[in-house]
Write a structure and sequence with these properties.
alpha/beta, 7-stranded parallel β-sheet, 4-stranded antiparallel β-sheet, 22 strands, about 20% strand, globular
């Protein structure tokens, strides 16, 4: 018997070092460089294991070996005997089943609307968060790519067909990680619904998209409600950062309306590590908190919706490190929290490798809330129809659309800045301040975009470095070789909204083999 397994190796690249190595780089270059660094690291660390698996593959005991780079992990199908052998390897941290079959991954269908809407309308959730007022300011999500990791998307829906990510290498606007092909067409509805909440333009009658000019990068990772393969999620996250055939044409943010309940034993440390690496690439993660309000804290929120945020709100409880997940709860049309919306706090005190946020008090979750009850959006099996669903799955794309609006005003906002603005401008509900039901409150797109005034200062990042090493001090090969003297010509890019003049930089060497003779340049 052959089983699908994830093999996680002991050595993982330091997220802190990764963030330092790409600091100051332009967004797309940063994403490609994160991919390059992690691929290089994992290629070395996985070499022995991959050699072993290749030998077993020749014996028909292993199939479909896939190497990952976002986390140091290898997926394969293997016999029980091979799995037992792999578990004993000194370079392997653990081996776990890849596919989880569990109930309740997707929200129930609440109601179904007529195939064609009669007259133009804007859905209640889009209106509640003041998105139309943002459009009037000229910010509609233009130029922003939203990676939607879900069940795929009906990219032929008239509300969405003009708002899909385009790339000549990916003619169907994304990738199908379930069937390993280039067609992420939805066959169950959840993904089309979330995509519509991000970017529907109302062509067929109902304006249900928060950011109608954003582009949807569709990442299909499951086909039925009761299946969720961890390897497919990792592959999709890698794709959003840096698509293999177009490494510099990635997405700006991830919307992810899925997760694992604590009872399903998710590998939480690996999720924190992986989310850190996504954050190092400058890609923010908007993730559903979950629909398990009936489960008592600290295990009500799903993973990765329980992973720490990129920004520390002073009203958060607990003590620990930050990561890259903006966790989303759900509200109804009366601004009450949804009866199903998962609540905090969560704990990480029992997770080896972090041991943060011991409970009590744990960590405050969610970060913010958004409309998630009776949400109308695009229908997967009709190019003109709509349907209603409820869940934190529906609240999450409302928030992702709001982030797309913010980024269309200033595309260089970091995950931490985005999180801070969402929380500081949210409509406070429930207990005063950030709480375990609503987080900081229900999002307000207009207030958030108005808060995004640009940096108000120069924002310089390194664009390129050229080594100039002519004779007699050098050999003119464009590299700094032992014993030669060279000059460095650095090109900076100003991502801020204020012009800067007469910029002075100081070069410092952290390598004892390099001596800086003239450290200051303009």
């Amino acid at each position: 018997m052959i089983d699908s397994v994830d093999i996680v190796l002991n050595k993982q690249f330091s997220p802190e070092l990764l963030a330092d190595l790409v600091a100051g780089m332009p967004k797309r270059a940063k994403q490609a460089e994160v991919a390059r660094i992690l691929k290089s690291f994992n290629t070395e660390k996985q070499a022995d294991l991959l050699g072993y698996l290749a030998a077993k593959e020749s014996e028909s005991r292993v199939e479909d070996v896939i190497s990952f780079w976002l986390v140091n992990m290898v997926y394969c199908k293997a016999s029980a005997a091979v799995i037992r052998e792999v578990e004993k390897r000194s370079d392997v941290y653990y081996v776990d089943a890849d596919m989880k079959y569990v109930p309740g991954l997707l929200p129930a269908l609440v109601a179904e609307d007529a195939t064609d809407a009669s007259g133009y309308e804007i859905t209640w959730g889009v209106q509640k968060i003041n998105a139309p007022a943002v459009w009037a300011l000229g910010y509609t999500g233009q130029g922003i790519v939203v990676g939607d990791i879900d069940t795929g998307c009906n990219y032929n829906h008239h509300d969405l067909r003009d708002h899909m990510w385009t790339d000549s290498h990916y003619p169907h606007h994304g990738w199908d990680f379930k069937d390993s092909d280039d067609d992420p067409m939805d066959n169950s509805g959840h993904g089309t619904h979330t995509a519509g909440t991000v970017a529907s333009d109302g062509t067929t009658g109902t304006q249900c998209g928060v950011a109608p000019d954003a582009q949807i990068m569709s990442c299909r990772v499951r086909t039925v409600a009761d299946s969720l393969a961890e390897s497919q999620i990792w592959a999709a996250m890698e794709f959003v950062i840096s698509p293999p055939l177009s490494p510099s044409n990635g997405g700006d943010l991830i919307t992810m309306s899925l997760g694992w309940r604590n009872a399903w034993h998710p590998r939480r440390k690996l999720w924190w590590d992986g989310c850190n690496n996504v954050g190092a690439a400058g890609v923010m993660m908007i993730v559903a908190a979950g629909n398990e309000r009936s489960t008592s804290p600290p295990y009500s929120c799903r993973t990765p919706g329980d992973v720490p945020p990129p920004w520390w709100n002073p009203q958060n409880v607990g003590t620990g490190a930050l990561s890259n997940v903006i966790s989303i709860g759900a509200t109804d049309s009366d601004d009450h929290y949804a009866s199903f919306s998962s609540r905090g706090p969560v704990e990480w005190g029992t997770v080896a490798g972090y041991n943060d946020y011991p409970y009590p008090p744990g960590l405050t979750r969610p970060d913010v809330s958004a409309p998630g009850v009776d949400v109308k959006s695009c229908k997967y099996n009709s190019n003109t129809g709509y349907t209603q669903m409820s869940g934190t799955s529906m609240a999450t794309p409302h928030t992702a659309g709001t982030v797309a609006l913010m980024l269309s005003k200033n595309p260089n906002l970091s995950p931490a800045v985005v999180d801070s603005i969402l929380e500081m401008t949210a409509v406070d509900l429930g207990s005063s301040g950030k709480d375990m039901d609503y987080g900081a409150g229900r999002i307000d797109a207009l207030a958030a975009v108005n808060y995004v005034t640009g940096s108000g200062r120069p924002d310089l990042g390194m664009e390129s470095v050229t080594v100039i090493d002519p004779p007699p001090g050098g050999n003119n090969n464009g590299r700094v070789d032992p014993g030669e003297t060279a000059k460095l010509e650095m090109t900076l890019h100003n991502y801020g909204d204020v012009t800067c003049y007469n910029t002075v930089g100081t070069l410092v060497s952290g390598d004892v083999r390099l001596t800086v003779s003239d450290p200051t340049g303009t």
